[in-house]
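Bug: C-alpha cell stream looks shifted between consecutive jobs. Job 1:
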Amino acid sequence: MVAVPDIVLEIQDAKRRFGRRAALSGISFTVRVGEISALLGPNGAGKTTLVRAISGRLPLDSGIIRILGHRVGSDGATRRLLGLVPQSIALYPHLTARENLHVMGRLSGLSSRQAAAAADDALARMDLAERANDRTKNLSAGMQRRLNIAAGTLHRPRLLLLDEPTVGVDLRARERIHDLLRQLRQEGIGILLTTHDLDQAAEIADRIGILSQGRLIAEGTPESLIRTAFGEAKELVVRLAREPDAGGRAFLEGQGLTAIRGKKDWSGRLPGGLTEMSVLGARLSQRGLAIEEVLLREPSLRGVFLRLTGEELTP
C-alpha cells in the first residue's frame, strides 16, 4: 500500500465486538500530518478500544488501520512510527526525570548514546531541564504530564496518541501542555487525543470526531460541527420541574428538543430570539409541562455534543 503523503493515520471500517456488544461499528477516520485531531465520546463510546487497536494492542474483527501506509499488526514498522501517551503516568516514580527518559528511550529501541541525547533534548523542549535530576515522584502533576509526553516522543514518532493528556492538572499546566502539543504539530507530528474536555477540544483540535455507541456520528472542525448543528440559531436549554410523561416527551421531541441528563433537561435550536423563546415557553406551559428554567446561549461544542448524544461530558 502506498502511503498518501499528508495522511499519517488511516482507519477504514474498523469493527470490533466483545461478545454481543459492538465496541466499534465500522469507524473510518484519518489524521493528517501536522494536525491535532480529537475524539470525543461518553464512557463506553469506543474511544479506548479504538486507541488500543491503533497501537496494535487489540486486533480488529475486520477493517484496516494504517500508519503512513503500513498496516498495523503486519510488521514492526508501525511501532517505530507511533508514540503512545496513556492517561495514567507511565513513569518510574523513584527514578529521576532524566533516568526515566533514558530507560524509555532504550525501550523504544534507541542506543544508550541516542537515548541520553534524546532525553536531554526532550527535557529542554519540555522546559524540564532544571528538574532533570529530581525524582519523578517529587515533580508536580503538570510536570509529570509533560514528562509523560516526553517519554512518548523520544523516538520522534510520526503519530502521537494521547489519552486525556491534561487530566488532574491545574489551568497553568494545562496551557503549557497545549502549547507543547501545538509545537509538536508544527514539527509535523500527527496527533490524536481522546478527551472528555470539550473546551480543550475546541481550543486546540483542528478536527474532531464524536463517537457514540461504537459509531462515528459526526466529524469536522469545531466551527463546522457547530454550524451544522445550529446554523444561525441559538442554543436553547429547557429545564423542567419534573419528568414529563410519554405524551410530554413526544411533544418536546416534536419541538426539536433532545433530552439530556435524564428527562428533566432538554436542548435544542431556537431560530428566533427572545420573542420566539417566550412563544415556545407558552406552548410548553399550555401542554402542561412545568418549566423551571429556560436558557438561551451561543452555540458551542458542548451544545453539539448534547444534541447528538443526549449526554454531557464531564472533564
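Job 2, same session, no restart:
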Amino acid sequence: MPATVPLVSERTIELSQMFPQQNSEVQITVQGGESVLLNQRTGQFHRLSVLGSVVWPQCTGTRSVERILSTISETFDVTAARAQSDLLDVLVQLQQDGLLHIEKR
C-alpha cells in the first residue's frame, strides 16, 4: 500500500505525488558543520537539524517525498514509521517557514 499523509484539509495523498521545491529566495550556508538557511526576503535565519541537512538538498522539485523517504531510511538507523514521521515534520516546518513549497503532481 502506498504511503499517505493527511493534509490540513483532512485529505490524504500519496507521498509519491508530493514534490518539495526549495524557495529560490533561500540560501544555504554551512557554518561549523551546521547548515543554516537564510530567507533573503524576510532576513530570517533557520538552523537545520541533522535530518534537515540531509533533506534540504533533495528538495529540488524533481524528487518525490517517497523518494526522499527512501534516502532517509537508508541513511538513518530508524524504523520506517519513524523516518516517515520525522521527514514529514521537517517538510511541514520548512513549508510553514516559507523555505519551500510542496507541489502535488
